[in-house]
Specification:
Blueprint: E1 10-12, H1 14-23, E2 28-32, H2 41-48, E3 54-57, H3 70-75, E4 80-84, E5 97-100, E6 102-104, H4 109-121, E7 126-131, H5 139-147, E8 152-154, H6 169-174, E9 180-184, H7 189-195, E10 202-206, E11 211-214, H8 216-233, E12 238-244, H9 252-264, E13 268-274, H10 279-282, E14 290-293, H11 298-303, E15 311-312, H12 314-325
Helix pairs in contact: 4-5, 8-12, 9-12
Keywords: 4Fe-4S, Iron, Iron-sulfur, Metal-binding, S-adenosyl-L-methionine, Transferase
Function: Catalyzes the first step of diphthamide biosynthesis, i.e. the transfer of the 3-amino-3-carboxypropyl group from S-adenosyl-L-methionine (SAM) to the C2 position of the imidazole ring of the target histidine residue in translation elongation factor 2 (EF-2).
Pathway: Protein modification; peptidyl-diphthamide biosynthesis
Amino acid sequence: MKINEFDIPYDIDIEKILEEITNRNAKKVLIQLPDGLKPYASKILEYLSLKDVLIVFSTDPCYGSCYIADYIGKEYNFDLLIHIGHDKFVEKEEIPTVYITANYLGSIEELAEKATKFLYERGFKKIGLVTNYQHLKNIEAFSRIINSHGLEVIIDEKSKGLVLGCKIDGALRISEKVDVVLYLGGGDFHALGIAMAIDKPLFIADPYRNEIRDIEKLKKRVIAQRWWAIHNAKNVKNFGIVLVSRRGQFNEKIALDLKYKLEEKGKKVTLLISDNVNWDEISSFTYIDVFIVTGCPRISIDNRDNFKKPILNIEEAYELIKVLKN
């Protein structure tokens, strides 16, 4: 069954979903979608067209496959979890889980031409190209267009150019071989993670806005916020170390190590646990001066403006400990 791109701009394997539901005789199915696909939930239901199967969509955040909703599925007796948009990350799920890719169906030719002109005018010759799951099938065609104009595109062989918010090995491996890194995809989430880790210019080729944009200003602002948070944290007394209960993000060993090291420096530490870290959930711990989130490192980077007290991720917490030692 072919998805009509005017209904849903992603190629979702509806036939595989139907096959998995049928073969497993699933009568109660939980579907988890990233935010960009949630507006198309009703269309997905139409394509599935199942009368004797109860289908429920999770409203929880779905930043990646480290954020799967299998624990909800287990607690409420779902037969099957369909996780759309990401690949497998956790070792073992709590209930039978099927991962379905969602490949972008839109055209990338005009964007590739625009990217080529943009890069050529700025004197870049060797281009490192990376992308996310939704555009992985577009990356070869995109690179061919840029190559055809005399520029050299380099894609990491091991990762095939794929990067995640917390896994950017593919970008790191090619960063020293290129003049610039180009991220094919929407939003700033993945691109910012790369920009924070490499010392090369990085631009976003955004197929949704059909534009090429710079991320340098955002990178500088985030770095300034990071050091502001570390600077403010060094002089306070009470720390809250937040464990994230999602299995793909649960880092108890690291949390305990940070607790021990901070207490060595005379700090008081309270251990907390949360399923979805946000200011409303933790603000009631009014005596805590600084929060350290030991789950996804991007929680602190992307949400600092939403927290009224300093918030650090694991890497930043260890930087703080170095500062305290000095």
